[in-house]
Write a structure and sequence with these properties.
alpha+beta, Immunoglobulin-like, 5-stranded mixed β-sheet, 4-stranded mixed β-sheet, globular
């Protein structure tokens, strides 16, 4: 009993476990292929994702009606984001963009300049739930929403693949 209390006291004294930061690279090869790497990650609520601009010019933009009326592909209570276009040399070499994910669910995002080339990514925060990112593309036809292009739809790793592997490479 005394050992259990000592262990519990030590755990409490250590405080909460700090949230993790996961890094995703934005790359463009000399032949022009673009990707987020990894293209899919599983993180815990409260974790931060830091996207690092390695080469080319890219954005990190949530699929959300607030972003050019795109189809909603993040949890309904989550705040959408858009980094704007980052260049590998501006605002500085290795420019970064960060977002803290607090709402559980599936988040789909894209690169504005390269969406039509299939440059998309998916983040599963905690449990996937049954939000918009788990539903088939075009699940809620809305005449004002821009649908996810077919080439982008095919580039997403499955939620099951992300949950199984934890991280899915973009190459």
């Amino acid at each position: 009993m005394a050992t259990c209390l000592a262990v519990a006291a030590a755990l409490c004294a250590a405080g909460p476990v700090p949230a993790a930061t996961v890094e995703i690279r934005l790359v463009q090869t000399p032949s022009g292929q673009t990707s987020f790497d990894p293209v899919g990650v599983h993180i815990a609520p409260g974790d931060t994702v830091r996207w690092v601009q390695v080469s080319g010019f890219h954005s990190i933009t949530a699929y959300h009606p607030n972003n050019d009326n795109h189809e909603l592909r993040i949890p309904t209570s989550a705040k959408p984001w858009d980094s704007g276009v980052l260049l590998s040399t501006y605002p500085a070499p290795g420019a970064t963009f960060e977002h803290v994910f607090t709402v559980q669910g599936v988040y789909d995002y894209f690169c504005r300049p390269h969406e039509m080339a299939g440059m998309v990514g998916r983040i599963v925060v905690g449990e996937p739930g049954d939000g918009p990112g788990t539903k088939p593309f075009g699940y809620a036809p809305n005449e004002h929403w821009t649908p996810v292009p077919e080439i982008a739809r095919k580039a997403f790793p499955s939620v099951d693949q992300i949950l199984k592997k934890g991280s899915v490479s973009g190459h």
